[in-house]
Amino acid sequence: MTTNYAGLQSVIWNDDKLDLLDQRLLPEEIVYLPLTTSGDVWEAIRHLKVRGAPAIGISAAYGVVLGSRDELSVEAWLEQVNKQAEYLATSRPTAVNLFWALDRMKSAAARIANKDLSLEESKAALLTEAIAIQSEDEETNRLIGEHALSLFKDDMGVLTHCNAGGLATAKYGTALAPFYLALERGITLRVFADETRPVLQGARLTAFELQQAGVDVTLICDNMAGMVMSKGWIDAVIVGTDRVAENGDVANKIGTYSVAVLAKAHGIPFYVACPLSTIDLGTPTGAEIPIEERGAEEITEGFGKRTAPQGIKVYNPAFDVTPNEYVTAIITEKGIVEAPYNVNLRKLFE
Ligand code: MRU
Using CA atoms, how far apart are residues 210 and 18, in angstroms rounded to an integer? Predict the structure, then answer.
């Protein structure tokens, strides 16, 4: 099915380079950075020029292609692909899509190297794999949107946190996909976007992309979520995730856990939308998910001026873990999964 979605594409493979939308500059400036090396891609991921779990994975896949173009034999090329994948894996720790995409690139390269192709053919085949990762994500998100939309009715108020939209993926997003489909089908959803301190993905990105599309979106500060819930304005919460553990614990942008607790206190369903590539059956519980900590300046100078005393101690975890008992359902491209997650998530992969 085709849709009218016309959001900005965050990752574009352009002939022989990667054009990456610099998400740090949004919403004020729309700038595409031409990336030509895997080092460029590592730096872009690390410094949030590209962010959001699926977009990080897609970019890293192209990063492997960029980092393995100069080799002179198929053997050296394969070795370089593996090296570049290990290198790109050090860019950020929490989103499992990064490691999923890099593993997929390594497996593809190993298969390709066994095929008796020329060096140029091998390189082209690996690029095809990266392009497939990106285009599959698009279709996956559309399916997630269809499943998520089945949970929403006309005129519902839905709160979201961070940005799990088109900007964070190949297209449509995960948590934001149902809003785009609703728009096309004449279903009105009133979206509330948490601003998402300290990096403001909700204000800069979610509010921006939903407003551009014509979705009814209201921006609130993170500390207003309880208030709007108590007013009865919120019928459901939907968020994305960076990694779902085997038991259904969910790592997502810092502040998600607070929203989940608030939702439970108000009897509001809390939904998590993600592709299967975000479900990590190899991580038993949320306690084993590595949580990235970022620089103090995101908190002390996040608004372009100093807002805290010099020398202040700062704790800045970029993600938190929402325990599975707060998660009403996990929405994937293969359908909607409820507890017991340790049984039902596994079934998705059968
Ligand atoms: O630090 P970020 O901006 O990469 O964090 C992004 C999130 O937490 C998203 O909710 C998550 O990656 C899902 S994106 C579909």
Answer: 25
